Amino acid sequence: MSKHDALTLSKQRKLRPSTHPYAALEHRIIDSEACADLKPQSFRLLVILCRQLVKHDTNNGHLQATWSYTRKRGMGSENTLRAAIADLIAHGFIYRTKSRGPNKQWARFAVTWKPIKDKEGLYLHGFLPDAWKNWKPTKKAPPKNRWIRPSESDGTPLTFQQFVTEPDQQKLMTMN
User: Fold this and answer.
1) Domain range for residue 145?
2) What one-character DSSP code corresponds to residue 94?
3) Residue 51: CATH number of its domain
4) pLDDT in tens, 160-172
5) In this structure, is residue 58 part of a structural domain?
6) Claim: this prediction has a pTM higher than 0.85
7) Is 97 helix (H, G, I), strand (E, B) or coil?
């Protein structure tokens, strides 16, 4: 095989679409603040749910997140799965379209950035398209190991150097 033939074959491979199925996450989802705040197992579950979407999104709203399905794809435990589902719902990435029911029917979910085409039998009264855009970060509690002296009124933390080198005025007054 000549060098020219190898280059032609290489170009043909690049132009040919993949015949293997794939899960595609849009860049606007991955680059969002809501996605950056997700826990690792929540992001894993999001990828597992996206893997189930078919080419023309006809099954959005009918995605499953059962323990038996997600366990094979790396989900650690049922408690982790429940926490990941709650995290994805709280961040607006998924919506529960049907709760689990009798005869071992599994709960169904939809990703919020894709349209739901087959709506029969689904609960969609609270469905909000692109709900992840409305997510606002919650104010997190300050770390517990901050160096703050009781005499400081503004509550700003000290650096370690300030904590070590600056004597506490109350202690100095009691020593005299």
Assistant:
1) 141-176
2) E
3) 1.10.10.10
4) 666 666 555 555 5
5) yes
6) no
7) strand
